[in-house]
Amino acid sequence: MRHGKKVNHLGRKTAHRKAMLANMACSLIEHKRINTTVAKAKALKQFVEPLVTKSKEDTTHNRRIVFSKLRDKYAVTELFRDVAPKVGDRPGGYTRIIKLGNRLGDNADMAMIELVDYNELYNAGKPAKKKSRRRGGKGKKASAPVAPAPEATNSEEE
Asked: Which pTM value belongs to this model?
């Protein structure tokens, strides 16, 4: 049984895995896309997405949390200065994994992981989407004319 085993260990000890994910995340933030194996790309996606969410609000506390994970001040600066404003309106899903096929040497499944808003090929055909409200309950009620209620008459006064 594999109860409570959500982490893919990637064949590495904890310190090695954390260092590798931090280095890959710094490369992803710097270059906006990297090629790696599918398993590492999935693990990197889980590692990077919370950091990008933290970077949307630029506070000292959030910078320190992100720095403790990335351990590279240039990547932290790039994340908060360039990446966060570009993904500020997106509620999640900051990365995209595209499978590339198998590697020649050992037949490993390869993938490209990239930051979604930086790919001009996928975003070129789409026009800028107009923001729409999801809960617009008051719009229909306000536009309908409301008839005044008839006044109640008391038969005792007459």
From this structure: 0.77
Query: What pLDDT digit, counting tens, does each position of 37-70 carry?
Result: 999 999 999 999 999 999 999 999 999 999 999 9
Name which of 34, 40, 38 is nearest 21 in CA terms: 40
| Inter-CA distances, 106 with 34, 55, 102, 112, Å | 19, 37, 8, 17
69-88: pLDDT as tens digits:
999 999 999 999 999 999 88
Output 39-43 pairs: Cβ under 8 A, ≥24 positions apart.
Answer: 39/8, 39/10, 39/109, 40/10, 41/97, 41/111, 41/112, 41/113, 42/8, 42/97, 43/8, 43/10, 43/17
DSSP letter at 144 equals S
